[in-house]
Design goal:
The chain is α+β, with helices and mostly antiparallel strands. It has one domain: ACT domain (Alpha-Beta Plaits), CATH 3.30.70.260. It has helices spanning 2-10, 29-40, 69-80, and strands at residues 15-24, 48-51, 57-66, 85-88. The longest helix has 12 residues, at 29-40.
Length: 89
């Protein structure tokens, strides 16, 4: 994968890596995101949640200590597969 090789070249593991997940404003959004992250990078996280101006969407940011490019990619994929998630940055 072209993107991962570029990202891999930019990152030195372990490193801090922040996921910003955009999703619909639903009460379960943050819990679903944390559930996925806990499976691959267990820790105590305090997500930063910012609502959109109209309140339709939330941006949830969570910083992990990434240990490999595979972990980073797995989390991107699994977070993107949450039904109420629109995008993962």
């Amino acid at each position: 994968m072209q993107t991962s090789s570029k990202l891999k070249d930019l990152l030195k593991f372990p490193c801090k890596f922040t996921y910003r997940v955009m999703g619909y404003t639903k009460p379960e959004l943050t819990d679903l995101i944390l559930e996925v992250i806990q499976r691959h990078a267990p820790n105590d996280y305090i997500p930063n949640v910012k609502p959109s101006s109209k309140g339709t969407y939330n941006a949830v940011s969570v910083t992990i200590t990434a240990i490999s490019i595979e972990q980073v990619e797995t989390l991107y994929n699994e977070l993107s597969n949450i039904d109420i998630v629109l995008m993962v940055l």
